[in-house]
Amino acid sequence: KxxxxxxxxxxxxxxxxxxEVLNRLTKRLELLVTASNSLDIPYICTEQYPKGLGKTLxxxxxxWGPRF
Length: 68
Description:
- The protein is of the alpha+beta class.
- The protein has helices at 11-15, 19-38, 50-53; strands spanning 4-7, 43-46.
- Strands 1-2 form a two-stranded parallel sheet.
- It starts with a strand and ends in a 15-residue tail after the last helix.
């Protein structure tokens, strides 16, 4: 069994990353999520202290599979 785990891609943490780096990270994560969906591999996103650091970036939340 496989599962993709995306760790702490949160709003306020992302704001601290230079935009060039964040764009590369986002594109690579989108590729991983697309591949995981194509292969029916579930994924989850972890959040560290969402009250202070914000929620996971909306584009990586999903409507099926494991919940946050």
